[in-house]
């Protein structure tokens, strides 16, 4: 059965037809505005209708940022869109005349990597998506972990530093305030004011300190910029430290790292690996978890949502 996966982002909606092998057969995009939530449903319906002109579709899966109820229908809270206890799945199902499931976007991407991507041969994995925040998806014994309230797998809000940096969630010391693209850029800018002489390459690429982005840091590091190499290594060590904590609870065989920072490769993964190994519980009596880069890129949300839509309720 073909299913449509829909990825609702901050500025656009991407929808695609996915077959049972996880192949994305065709996709389409609609612009959207978080300020007008009712137009989002309109745009999703329009995109699905376009794809249905050429494919027989059996189900629709929708990936969105936020908490989704365990019944995979209601968006309980979305950080960027004014959805509160919003029955998105039901509204779309009525509109489309198809079964619709809704899933947290990081969960959908992680599921895609588990089924068809970087971790397809293991039963236990965790995906960490390093972006604005730190998204998490956890698969235990072949099952996506959602938790009792639908808020499971939100690893970015594990507290790693008591009384640490303030987090957008209202608490402090959350993992994502240390291990995210946002943290990388913020810390790099701070370091630049102290040691600009160690970042000549970075400053040449970015133009000026306040214009630095994550991809600038990665490019400069790959070209040997000492400060950029150090900042990526710091990010890697924060990732590794959190992974070690997760391993004590979940013991995944594989960690999949997603997000643009993966382009840094071993400049990021090397320090992450070292820190994970150094802090891993029972290290002498076990296989070490592997760290791999995600393979499905920006399509992961679409592919994962579509595949989850095919699973029995
Ligand atoms: Zn937090």
Automatic annotation (TrEMBL):
- EC number(s): the record gives 2.7.1.2
Instruction: List the SUPFAM superfamilies.
Output: Actin-like ATPase domain
Where does the source fall among the domains of life? Bacteria
Q: Which CDD domains match?
A: ASKHA_NBD_ROK_SgGLK-like (cd24061)
Q: Which GO terms describe its biological process?
A: glycolytic process
Q: Which UniProt keywords apply?
A: ATP-binding, Kinase, Nucleotide-binding, Transferase
Question: What is the official name of this protein in its record?
Answer: Glucokinase
């Amino acid at each position: 059965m073909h299913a449509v996966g829909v990825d609702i982002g901050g500025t656009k909606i991407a929808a695609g037809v996915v077959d049972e092998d996880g192949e994305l057969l065709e996709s389409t995009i609609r612009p959207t505005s978080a300020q007008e939530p009712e137009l989002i449903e309109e745009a999703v319906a329009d995109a699905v209708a376009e794809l249905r002109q050429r494919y027989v579709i059996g189900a629709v899966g929708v990936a969105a940022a936020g908490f989704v109820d365990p019944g995979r229908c209601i968006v309980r809270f979305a950080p960027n869109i004014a959805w509160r206890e919003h029955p998105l799945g039901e509204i779309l199902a009525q509109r489309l005349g198809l079964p619709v499931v809704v899933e947290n976007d990081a969960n959908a991407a992680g599921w895609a990597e588990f089924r068809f991507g970087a971790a397809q041969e293991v039963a236990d994995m965790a995906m960490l998506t390093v972006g604005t925040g730190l998204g998490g998806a956890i698969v235990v014994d072949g099952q996506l972990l959602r938790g009792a309230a639908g808020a499971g797998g939100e690893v970015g809000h594990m507290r790693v530093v008591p009384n640490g940096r303030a987090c957008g969630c209202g608490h402090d010391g959350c993992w994502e305030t240390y291990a995210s693209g946002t943290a990388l850029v913020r810390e790099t800018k701070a370091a630049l004011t102290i040691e600009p002489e160690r970042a000549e390459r970075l400053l040449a690429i970015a133009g000026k300190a306040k214009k630095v982005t994550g991809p600038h840091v990665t490019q400069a590091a790959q070209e040997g910029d000492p400060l950029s190499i150090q900042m990526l290594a710091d990010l890697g060590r924060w990732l590794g430290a959190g992974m070690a904590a997760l391993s004590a609870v979940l013991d995944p065989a594989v960690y999949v790292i997603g997000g643009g920072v993966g382009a840094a490769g071993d400049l990021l993964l090397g320090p992450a690996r070292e820190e994970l190994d150094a802090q891993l519980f029972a290290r002498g009596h076990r296989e070490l978890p592997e760290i791999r880069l995600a393979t499905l890129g920006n399509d992961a949300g679409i592919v994962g949502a579509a595949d989850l839509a095919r699973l029995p309720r």
